[in-house]
Amino acid sequence: MCLSWFIHNISPFHSWSYVVSLSVLCTVWVAYTALTCRSLALKLSLLLQETSRVRGGPARKQAIWAAHVVGMEMLICAVLGLGICVYGIFSGLCLRAMWRYRGSSSEANLWLMLKWIELLQVVIHSDWVVNSLGLGLLSGILWQVQPPEDDPQSERLARGLVSMSSSLSPSEQEVYHQVVKQIASRGLRLGTLLSFWEQLQLQGEVMPGFDPRRSVTNDVVRRVRRVIIPESRVGNHGCALASLWSGAETKPHVMVTHNWTNGFGSLVSAILADALGQASYDEVVAQIATS
């Protein structure tokens, strides 16, 4: 609206300043839109990788749902950015036409100038509509994707576990809660895990044949007589290796899940990368494999 007022009251002296202002506006907006879309595209790529990696279950449904949401947000941002750019380009062209035909008394030139103004008015109103639709879509008023529903089987399993613990006698429940508390306090420190990793890399000392790039977690566990049992032995008895490493009850800050067929080096690298605040462990796994 303000720009329309400027067009009707523009003078040749100020036309170039308006053109420069529009050029700066379009440049900044294009850069902002490109950075926003790039950030959303990276997130969308990670989500698509997650959907192809996860097999079934609620996790894959949630990844697909998140990918739909992020993809729609990226599309809306691109359309909004394109609308502002079109608005700026047509405004600049209209200002140029006004400056060119302003002093002319020819009816043809005046007709062209009026047509440019009418076209700009259409662009302005179209931009208002696009911005309103974009706001409605991004805010969730006009478009929402419902998250996937919880798996009823998982809910039944959770209810079954609760009912099993509630059916115990008071003395059994006391033992049950003590064991749960003990397991929940069985954390270990990152430094201890890295020390164990260093011992594994020493060929022939802890686990002969260990390959930091190829040995999977199951290899370390299958060779318990060479690695886990000697490390967790206390006199003639044994205990959990995590409890022995910690020396006391340690409440973990992060819960780590893994797959037995994944590389043990990848597991250690992922834990270390998370502690360092990195989004990926690619660089970490290369460093610890050669350290």
Description:
With 291 residues, this protein is mainly α. The chain has two domains: 2-139; 178-290, no CATH class. The chain is 71% helix and 1% strand. The chain contains twelve helices and two strands; from the N terminus they run H-H-H-H-H-H-H-H-H-E-E-H-H-H. The chain has helices at residues 2-8, 12-53, 57-101, 107-139, 152-166, 170-184, 190-201, 217-222, 228-231, 241-246, 264-276, 282-290; strands at residues 233-234, 237-238. It has a two-stranded antiparallel ribbon. Strand 1 (233-234) and strand 2 form a beta hairpin. Helix 2 runs antiparallel to helix 3, helix 3 (57-101) runs antiparallel to helix 4 and helix 11 crosses helix 12. The two termini are 64 Å apart. The relative contact order is 0.07.
Provide the descriptors you would attach to this structure in a database record.
single chain, two-stranded antiparallel ribbon, 291 residues
